[in-house]
Amino acid sequence: MELFPKKIEKLWEIWDLRTCILLSLTLQAFLVLFSSFRRRFKSSLLIFLIWAAYLLADWIAAVAIGLITQSQGSNCNLNAKGNEDLLAFWASFLLLHLGGPDSITSFALEDNEFWIRHLFGLLLQLWLPTILVFVVGTIKYAERTYALYLASLDRFGATVLPKPDPGPDYEESAALYSAAAAMAVMPRVDQSDDAELILELGQKVKSAEDIKLLQLAHLLFQAFKGLIVGFFLSNRDRKTSREIFTKIDHKCAFKLIEYEFSFMYQVLHTKAVVVHRRVGYILRFISLSSILGASIFFLLVGKKSFGTETEIALTFTLLVGAIVLDVISIIKLIFSEWTLLDAQMENQYEWRKKYITATILKKKRWSRKVFQYNMINYCLDQERQFSLFLYKIAGYVRATAIVEQLSNMWFSSSKPVRYPLKKFIFEELKEKSNDAGNLKEALEACSQRGDSALLKSSYTSYIKLKWSIGEFQYAESLLLWHLATDLICYKEEKEANSSHNREDVFYYVRENCKALSDYVFYLLVMHTTMMSPVLGNWHKAFQDTCAEAKRFFEKHKITNYKEAYDKMDDVKTKVRPAAVKGTKSKSVFFDACILARQLRNMEDKERWRTMELVWLEFVAYAAINCKANIHAQQPSRGGELLTFIWLLMYHLGLGTQFSDQEELAGTKMVAIK
């Protein structure tokens, strides 16, 4: 029995290669135009489409090469014996497609480790227009392979290391030291000029739209990129960066970090490092010239022996497509941040300043959004009839986790990261930095997870609230404060009649608390890998709290969040749940009701100030404990506020990867008796 009719099989035999070639060209065009969007938009659909196109692009090109190889022994496809030249011409285009666009060499960090596989692919996939296109394809594929190699963690770590330096000659230095000691004058230790250059440039920065801010970001990226591979930074780097960030405002600080993450994304996932060199510019000129030469030659030469009009049209489509994609790549090259790093840009023409520089500096480099989700809605969403039906069906095929993930994506929302939140985060972290004068104090500041914030409240309030931090693990405290914050924000908004009332004195403070609270819960549910180092018994506490919340809602026939908050506020909680139910259950549902009532009894100003500081410490603790390589993945996924806070803390001298040993080693000389 035939699976497909003979007519369809015959049609596919004729069009299989043509379809693959056109699809390969389409995928290349899609990646050129849209792959860079993934750092500016946090859209699951967009990331999925880019991921699918990235995987399919190589696969389709390889399949097409296989079909060309197969057609060499067959007379049915393209009348292969008479069109071997045309097939070879098409094969060179497919090699060009395998080289990929400049805007994406890898989808994830792990892809950079496969540069050896691409090197073997380049070596094994070996008449005038064919040679020209083959040269272009070889250049593109070699660029991609080299970019993957440079972005692999081993090689990326090697670029962070300075050049080998044996130091001054020991015998000469010892003699100099002895002479200086006899004269009671200690020799001066030479230091690197990099720190002085960074400080000098930092003092010239005037606004968030200043081109010097971009140049400063590149220098800081070069100094701090070792964090990604676990290298320790010197105390000199810490002091230099800290001096700059304590003198700029929150707008410049966040713009500076946005530039740094843009450089990180381009180094790890694009051909930027390869292309933005003199050799890269020369190769790009050769590529475009070769494609244009091949097009002109193919246009002028006789085509009677090249097959049908369809095959000739397909060849012209490949040539035009290659030229258009190359031109787009060159335009992107011109309007790239790397263009402005050229020292000659200081003396550029006025028109270039007005158009190119302004366009580059105003580009959006991350989503500037945070996703939001809260536990009350999470529990109510799962209790909806349609959700229950889906979970039941998924249970039969053991796909409950997939349905839950899709459900969370559907019901979660996002909101922009507004300036009041940025300003609050920056100012408070700067204050922490000023209080932490040395590395030991900086490490202590990084270990604070809410307790330090409570100490800034009144003594009475501290005594009443310290149980909510001290008696629970970090993840339990997060869940406890998240529920309490939700309840308080709802009650305050209800009393203010509108959550959009800008005349409310505490509106922005409440928005900051709510945004951070819902953001952290979203990370706990949807991005567990970012929070994994600090989760502890999160899963146990979360499932127990969910179970108790659902039982409470079902008992009181609650179907929406307003009814839920009103009923929770009415609960009489005079005794802690642990004293009544024991400690077997890790639920913090009714503990949250107690905490909310205690916070509501505080004065408005003290309450919101305390809550704001507690949430900042919660987020800062999660940011600094998240693995550096996980942070490095976020720029390719639209960016995360948590990652911005992580790098901001390091720039303010608050981090766990600083060491003063290098500085001490360079200044210490002890006489041996």
Summarize the structure.
With 673 residues, the chain is mainly alpha-helical. The protein contains 34 helices and four strands. Helix 1 runs parallel beside helix 14, helix 2 packs antiparallel against helix 3 and helix 24 packs across helix 28.
Topology:
Blueprint: H1 6-34, H2 44-71, H3 84-99, H4 115-124, H5 128-151, H6 153-160, H7 170-182, H8 194-204, H9 211-224, E1 233-234, H10 235-245, H11 250-269, H12 272-275, H13 278-300, H14 309-334, H15 350-362, E2 369-372, H16 375-382, H17 385-396, H18 400-411, E3 413-416, H19 419-435, H20 439-446, H21 451-455, H22 459-465, H23 467-470, H24 474-496, H25 507-526, H26 528-531, H27 538-555, H28 561-570, H29 577-581, H30 589-600, H31 604-625, H32 628-633, H33 641-651, E4 658-659, H34 661-667
Parallel strand pairs: 1-4
Antiparallel strand pairs: 2-3
Helix pairs in contact: 1-2, 1-14, 2-3, 3-5, 3-14, 4-5, 5-13, 8-9, 8-10, 9-11, 11-19, 13-14, 16-27, 17-18, 24-25, 24-28, 24-30, 25-31, 31-33
Helix content: 55-70%
Structural class call reads: mainly alpha
Got a strand count? 4
How many whole angstroms does the radius of gyration measure? 30 Å
Our measurement of the CA-to-CA distance between the termini, rounded to an integer number of angstroms, reads 96 Å
Please state how the strands of the largest beta sheet are arranged side by side: 1-4
Overall, the morphology is globular
Main sheet overview: 2 strands, parallel
pLDDT averaged residue by residue: 79
Question: What is the overall number of helices?
Answer: 34
Q: Per DSSP, what share of the residues sits in E-state strands of 2 or more residues? A: under 5%
Pick out the low-confidence regions: 75-82, 122-128, 184-192, 664-673
